[in-house]
Design a protein that fits this description.
The chain is α+β, with helices and mostly antiparallel strands. The protein is built from 4 helices and 16 strands. 43% of the residues are buried. Residues 5-28 and 263-285 have low confidence and may be disordered.
């Protein structure tokens, strides 16, 4: 699952693999939290600051070297969800979806991201949903790969929600959306603490559909939280489920420039990123 959350300038915007939201008043301040759930994934390496050719970035690593979440010194964040609703698999050899975010960590514009995505061997990747948050452009963009079409969808700068589940994705979306909606009724729902509490939620009951997921055949292996202000990007990482009290690893990078809002308008719509790989159109939902 994936979560993005925010409010006015003194509110964080959270992004965690399970629920996500933004408010129009957010100008260069947001938080992002993602937790990783899998029946077979090994524990990841905690986040570290990586020096790139022209930028710096923070991200945890899977044993294979890939990652599912990152933040760079332009304030841009990426998070990747497995798209379980699409059950098809690549016909030939498959590559790890962890290479997607790793290939994008230094990108800081929507055009740059799209160009880099089109250069990836997507036909060897299982279905995924990639979320990008670009505070300078004040945009939230989702790319979806269903083995036939790489599509893009722009979201308005307001609260959004994304969910992923290998158990029953459709039902998980309904159950977790209901919990998120109920949480937002509370007056304190826009604080970073409330975001963390939401990610520890076992409503309606602890199990495969609660945001803090618990199953006998799978485990929540980590929780990652990114907070971006005009001055810095901070990533906090904790192994184990969100409800646990494990030790956290914190890494911070400074941002060389203010996160000014420079893109006053864009439409919320879908379009093809790479028409040359389109074979069939399949609706998002």
């Amino acid at each position: 699952s994936l979560s993005l959350f925010g409010g006015p300038i003194n509110w964080p915007l959270g992004f965690a693999a399970c629920f996500a939201g933004i408010r129009p008043a957010d100008l260069g301040l947001y938080s992002l939290g993602v937790f990783s759930v899998t029946p077979y994934r090994f524990a990841a390496l905690p986040p570290d600051v990586v020096e790139l050719e022209r930028h710096r970035a923070i991200f945890p690593r899977e044993p294979t070297g890939g990652t599912w979440i990152s933040a760079n010194d332009a304030g841009v964040c990426f998070a990747l969800l497995n798209w379980h609703r699409i059950e098809d698999k690549p016909k030939n050899d498959t590559l790890s979806r962890g290479l997607v975010v790793k290939a994008l960590v230094a990108k800081f514009t929507a055009n740059g991201i799209a160009t880099a995505l089109n250069k990836l061997p997507v036909r060897k990747l299982r279905p995924f949903r990639l979320i990008a948050i670009l505070p300078r452009e004040r945009r939230v963009i989702e790319w979806r790969w269903n083995l036939q079409r790489l599509a893009i969808r722009n979201y308005e700068w307001q609260r959004q929600h994304w969910f992923s589940s290998g158990f029953d994705e459709r039902r998980a979306e309904v159950e977790r959306q209901r919990v998120c909606n109920a949480a937002m009724v509370q007056q304190s729902a826009t604080s970073l603490m409330s975001l963390r509490q939401l990610h520890r939620s076992h409503s309606p009951k602890q199990g495969p559909f609660s945001i803090c997921m618990h199953r006998s055949d799978a485990a929540t292996v980590s929780y990652t939280e990114v907070t971006v202000s005009n001055q810095r990007a901070t990533m906090r990482y904790k192994s184990g489920p969100s409800c646990s009290n494990g030790a956290k690893v914190t890494r911070t990078i400074s941002l060389p420039g203010a996160l000014l809002y420079v893109n006053p308008s864009f439409t919320s719509r879908s379009r093809d990123v790479a028409p040359e790989i389109q074979k069939a159109r399949r609706p998002f939902d």
